[in-house]
Design brief:
7-stranded mixed β-sheet; ATP binding; ATPase_NBD; globular; D-xylulokinase activity; Xylulose kinase; xylose metabolism
């Protein structure tokens, strides 16, 4: 489960190591600060290991970036990787006040660097998904009356009923997951309502555990926030509501009505609805920034606070996905982001409300067997050389003469299968392939799996569909050609460094004009475009349409055999 969010948790290093460098405004950090009168927008990201901020000007050029590393810059909290792993090796938490102090630190850093806050027209942000914060009764009054002469972490010291917040790495709530699914009629029924089956890290199951194991702390709780809405509350000087998109990762919200699901609330904890507030659109302006920031840092009194969201939805905004697009991160694990209009929840993957279009949805699927499997086949069949690997890949025609391979070195997440399974054109199992056919079977098989499972969740290729590729293998054009052919769509390469943070700066820009009916794509039309890498080989669709059906049938066959 930790791998589900892996490729987008450390996007900065991933982009720098492997992503193609582009001379675009997105990556051109202007040294001089914007003039005081120039409007700008801020995007924050409260991620697992650090707090980051990006400032963009009205042309969407990045002109300031900053960060606070939790472990090294706030050592008093004694975190490792931003978290505390407890003795049971299942419970994972982070100190809430560490996040608060990080905000103090990053704003001071910006101020010391000469950043002029008077031009900030709007701000938004994201938080690591699923984590929860428990505000103590009376905390709202504290938020509304912050003393600008003092630091936030001093002012809010006594404001939390639970000092250590459960985070996405926690896997201690198996019992609560079982109870929730039983209460609503099973895993598929829960997915039909909330977009996902019960997951240990999802917020509802964490709330259920705290209600049961720390009833006095739960009773003292006035409001429960996600990490995103908690961070938004700090800027708003009031409790910020949970947005639709991040709210989809709780196992508590009906993703179709965008309201709390009463069945789920009742099965989770008593008096829960009153502690959650009301879900709001992800592009909603929740109010002006708190007077605390106006007095202490010089923010304008009319600076707008746009609802914060989760880091994965923030990344969708940063990657500028549009209807019909799919983003594929080719890393240690391969992660697929989808923009979909007609979702079909399953017990595999996740459906969230779309953070930039209230009428649409996004999906997330993780495949554990990514680059490590590609590297093993490269070592075994190409002498460890990517050049030899590419030559072998292109020496076999697309479709691989009807040969199909399923390569799951480790137990896969989607679907839960392990082992290598090879089939010839008659669908008979075979012991092995030639080196060239093996390489082609691996690459085609991995991309066939991605399209098969994307379509199971409701994804449809439409005119104008783009595949956005990132991660280590996105620098290999021959691999990208297979990706393009399997999806019958052009492949573009993108650098996802700080994509959630950048996406929230874009979302702040959009939030200012969203109420006038301006769509996200129109609001950020000046932002840099992805770079076209390859287009589908003529005739690819006719080759891969029958292979997609065969792959799905063979994967189902292997799954059934594994369960016998």
């Amino acid at each position: 489960e930790l791998l589900t969010y892996g490729p987008f948790k450390n996007v900065q290093s991933l982009g720098r190591q492997h992503g193609p460098r582009r001379s675009t405004a997105c990556h051109r950090v202007v040294d001089s600060m914007a003039a005081a009168t120039d409007p700008c927008y801020l995007g924050f990201d409260f991620s697992t290991q650090q707090l980051k901020v990006i400032a963009v000007d009205e042309h969407l050029n990045v002109f300031h970036q900053n960060n606070v590393q939790f472990d090294s810059e706030l050592p008093e909290y004694r975190t490792q990787g931003g978290v505390h792993i407890h003795s049971d090796r299942l419970t994972a938490t982070s100190p809430v006040l560490m996040w608060v102090k990080a905000l103090d630190s990053i704003l001071e850093k910006m101020k010391n660097a000469g950043f002029d806050f008077s031009g900030v027209k709007a701000l938004s942000g994201s938080g690591q998904q699923h984590g929860s914060v428990y505000w103590k009764t009376g905390a709202c009054q504290v938020l509304k009356n912050l003393d600008p002469e003092r630091h936030l972490h001093e002012l809010l010291q006594g404001s939390f009923a639970v000092a250590d917040s459960p985070v996405w790495m926690d896997s201690s709530t198996t019992e609560q997951c079982h109870n929730l699914q039983m209460a609503v009629g099973g895993a598929q029924r829960l997915a039909d309502i909330t977009g996902s089956r019960a997951y240990e890290r999802f917020t509802g199951n964490q709330i259920a555990k705290i209600s049961k194991t720390k009833p006095e702390h739960y009773q003292q709780t006035e409001r429960i926030s996600l990490v995103s809405s908690f961070a938004c509350s700090l800027f708003l000087g009031n409790y910020a509501d949970v947005d639709y998109s991040d709210g989809s990762g709780m196992n508590l919200m009906n993703i179709f009505t965008k309201q709390w699901a009463q069945q789920c609330l009742s099965a989770t904890a008593p008096q829960l609805e009153g502690k959650l507030g009301t879900p709001v659109p992800s592009m909603a302006v929740l109010g002006p920034v708190s007077a605390y920031y106006v007095s202490r840092y010089g923010f304008p009194v009319d600076c707008k606070v746009v609802a914060f969201t989760g880091d994965n939805p923030g990344s969708l905004a940063g990657m500028r996905l549009q209807e019909g697009d799919i983003a594929v991160s080719l890393g240690t694990s391969d992660t697929v982001f989808l923009w979909i209009q007609d979702p079909k929840p399953t017990v595999e993957g996740h459906i969230f409300c779309n953070p930039v279009d209230c009428q649409a949805y996004m999906a997330l699927i993780c495949f554990k067997n990514g680059s490590l499997t590609r590297e093993r086949i490269r070592n075994e069949c190409a002498g460890g050389s990517w050049e030899v690997f590419s030559k072998a890949l292109t020496s076999v025609p697309m479709g691989n003469h009807g040969n199909i391979g399923i390569y799951f070195d480790a137990m896969e997440i989607t679907p839960p299968i392990v082992g290598v399974h090879r089939f010839n054109e008659e669908n008979n199992k075979v012991a092995g392939f030639s080196e060239e056919v093996e390489i082609r079977a691996l690459v085609e098989g991995q991309f066939l799996a991605k399209r098969v499972h994307a379509e199971k969740l409701g994804y449809k290729i439409i005119p104008g569909t783009r595949v956005l590729a990132t991660g280590g293998a996105s620098s290999n054009k021959d691999i990208l050609q297979v990706l393009s052919d399997v999806f019958s769509a052009p492949v573009y390469t993108i650098d996802t460094a700080n994509s959630a943070c950048l996406g929230c700066a874009y979302r702040a820009t959009h939030g200012v004009v969203a109420e006038k009916g301006v769509c996200f794509a129109e609001a950020i039309r000046k932002a840099p475009e992805a770079k076209l890498a390859v287009t589908p080989t003529p005739g690819a669709d006719k080759v891969f349409e029958p292979l997609l059906k065969r792959y799905a049938e063979l994967e189902d066959r292997v799954l059934k055999e594994s369960l016998q």
